[in-house]
Amino acid sequence: MTEDLTPAEAYAAARARNAERATALYPFREMYDFDLDPFQIEACKALEAGKGVLVAAPTGSGKTIVGEFAVHLALTQGRKCFYTTPIKALSNQKYADLVKRYGADKVGLLTGDNSVNGDAPIVVMTTEVLRNMLYAGSQALSGLGYVVMDEVHYLSDRFRGAVWEEVIIHLPESVTLVSLSATVSNAEEFGDWLDTVRGDTEVIVSESRPVPLWQHVLAGRRMYDLFEEETDHGGRGASRREVNPDLLRLARTENTRTYNPRDRRRGKMVREADRERERRQRSRIWTPGRPEVIDRLDAEGLLPAITFIFSRAGCEAAVQQCLYAGLRLNDDEGRQRVREIVEARTASIPAEDLHVLGYYEWLEALERGIAAHHAGMLPTFKEVVEELFVRGLVKAVFATETLALGINMPARSVVLEKLVKWNGEQHADITPGEYTQLTGRAGRRGIDVEGHAVVLWQRGLDPGHLAGLAGTRTYPLRSSFKPSYNMAVNLVDQFGRHRSRELLETSFAQFQADRSVVGISRQVQKNEEGLEGYREGMTCHLGDFEEYALLRRDLKDRETELARQGAAQRRAQAANSLEKLKPGDVIHVPTGKFAGLALVLDPGIPAGRTNGHRGFEHHDGPRPLVLTAERQVKRLASIDFPVPVEALERMRIPKSFNPRSPQSRRDLASALRSKAGHINPERHRKDRAAAADDREIARLRTAIRAHPCHGCDEREDHARWAERYHRLQRDTRQLERRIEGRTNTIARTFDRIVALLTELDYLRGDEVTDNGKRLARLYGELDLLASECLRDRVWEGLTPPELAACVSALVYESRQADDAVAPKLPTGNAKAALGEMVRIWGRLDALEEEFKINQAEGVGQREPDLGFAWAAYQWASDKSLDQVLREAEMPAGDFVRWCKQVIDVLGQIAAAAPKEDSTVSKNARKAVDSLLRGVVAYSSVG
In whole angstroms, how large is the CA radius of gyration of the chain? Predict the structure, then answer.
């Protein structure tokens, strides 16, 4: 090839090669045994050019290569790089990867649980750790050149998302930001915001998966492709668009009922031959069992597979079902390797706890190549499952959706049992974004030629809906940023109130709100132009027609209001008359489908009283059950009685009367007609209209007649223009209110928080008081409650276990929102302190209401949850794991996670509590030592 070049071209090519070798990217590429993708090269070049980057690409596409290049640049330039992740498990994983590449002396780890070599040039940490460093003005920030924010799309998380924006806003300008995100549909918008707050930022979006994904539906014994093929079978699947017609036919067959009563012909059932043929057709369709699915995938070479089940209990049950079915996915050599790895990784867990944790059952499943993975498992157990899966020693994992959140655990296939999951409030369809995140695990780069997403057939499955989920690759990134009490005191301490307010207005939340205002503002401008035209149309040479139109409108509004009041009064009178009815009253139903003579069988339930079923009430007044003269038994509603009703006569209802018996209804209706058929009901006299005697209406009518415009020949033409003007003006004011509601929303919330903190003496203007400085060191959802407890000395004199119990109420949240059973609590001082905490929360809650701080918007203090207090007290009191878990009725993984969160907040309290004349700081440190034992203390890193 080079022989065909002219001397000039050869010289230019040589210069280009030399220039490339001089870049930092050239030696970095040599470190990998595969070529980088175009989007990775583009992002790395932008970084080397000094720009920040936002990389949005699918799961498994290799976004982290860009983050690793930032690490490489930092080391090359003699600067530091912080690599942040949203969860500790990801931090641990990335730490292990970087240690393998650069050595343990150059890499550190900082999470809530671990602190390893924190002064290293490369430090992996959770995002909260970096946020706390920024507010504390940590010395570790000196020399920082790059920050990698992995999984930056977490900023839409409603509970923790604000931390990502805090970091992005507060990082020093000299730091280059590398943002790695899943594919989001508004990456450009997010990039524009980063450009605004961080300076020059390159947005690189890649929507192509490195391994093509094939979508399937497994029904009975057959695996259907979701999409019909339009290209050759070797294609990457991108051109497949139409839903498979076989699948659509299957859905139609399955979702039509075998027998419908309308199919009767002269009393005969559908012919047996037809039913037999349909039975044979449907016998080929069923939802395969879990062992059957794994067996099928194994036979077709589609393992390893992750099956997503949106239930922890479902995951554990699936493992048991596979064991009972005798599934074995490992040979003898594989079983031996699994046992060696598991025993080495669990050696630090006390032997007496292994039985409690279900270790031996878990190990048996692992040896067979089967495992569960969910948040209720011990972290160690989850890490072992992840390691064995990556090594190919576990081939079938049953997991909840938490596995999809960043853990590097790709599979050849992903199975979804259902397309519905519990979202904390109700069963809801999974979103396209969730479907993309889950199925993104399918297809291992460099191992698999293609990945497979398999949805199990369920009755009622709509292939078109599934195709919509599979075809929508992206989801929008929405900010969840809200100011907090801790954030407010830290900002005011560093920047003062005015500058803090300006900083908050640079948040992505406000950026999105302001952008949404642009379209509304354009509409307001159009409306104002329209209003000008309408104003000209209603101009009258005799006087001010706008003033005249206002009088007419006031008259119309007053008449409408009086008519509404009259109707409400008539409804109230009618409802009152219905409440006086008794069984046996003969009435005349004035209107409706059942108008005419009727006998009251049951007067119904008076308004507001329950019908015996808890929580159910009739809010629309009594609903009498009547027998009409035409032999119909009907429950009437208040709408059937626009006017009051009175009993015309009384009748005895036989005890033998059965409303379901036609004969019984016929006899009683005949008696009704005989008894009262000759009675003509009195016509209800209409009351004199309230408008006739209303002084305001009389005044307005006089003013209208006296107005100069009343005599204009074109008065009604002007009036039509005036009505259009009024309607458009009303719409314009609504739009302006929407703009006002979206503009400066974050700053207004900040102002309300600052006002409350000033009331409580945490702030005095731009000064942060001693109370405020204490609050600045307390991070968490109940930061202000914790600070108030310290100020009121609620925890003084408590033992370390008692203090652990109280602090647990600041972090714990029950998985069930409304536990009917009151939680068990420690007695004595701890119980009294917990009661005092709830009382202080009540006082804060009332203050928040006064200052219009709305918990529904994610701002404010939720009620402390006492559900973990007994477990924390028992564990800190050195009780056995068996006893604690049995009494707490809690999975080991949840127990460890809550203990670690309590330990984290105890550490904050130890730092924030006064050191003199107080036992809290000392006992908080002791409580940490008491909790940090056994399974809680075990960590895979450091």
Answer: 36
3-state secondary structure 139-187: HHHCCEEEEEECCHHHHHCCCCHHHHHHHHHHCCCCCEEEEEECCECCH
Contact 376, 319 (CB under 8 A): no
Q: Check if the beta carbon of residue 892 is closer than 8 Å to that of residue 910.
A: no
Tokens of 821: 């059973």
Long-range CB contact pairs, 381-386, < 8 A, 24+: 381/357, 381/893, 382/89, 382/893, 383/89, 383/92, 383/345, 383/940, 384/341, 384/342, 384/345, 384/346, 386/89
> Within 13 Å and on the Cβ side, how many CA atoms surround 555?
16
What is the pTM assigned to this prediction?
Answer: 0.70
Residue pair 594/636 in contact by the 8 Å Cβ criterion: yes
Bridge-based pairing of strands 370-373 and 649-650 is unpaired
pLDDT digits (tens, 9 = 90+) for 520-578: 777 777 888 888 888 888 888 888 888 888 888 888 888 888 888 888 888 888 888 88
Give the span between the Cα atoms of 939 and 942, in whole angstroms: 7
Contacts of 173 (CB under 8 A, 6+ apart): 198, 199
DSSP 715-773: HHHHHHHHHHHHHHHHHHHHHHHHHHHHTTHHHHHHHHHHHHHHHTTSEETTEE-HHHH
| Residue range 611-641, pLDDT digits in tens | 333 333 344 678 889 999 888 888 888 888 8
For the chain, helix (H) and strand (E) counts, in that order, are 34, 24
Q: Give tens-digit pLDDT for 723-745.
A: 888 888 888 888 877 777 666 67
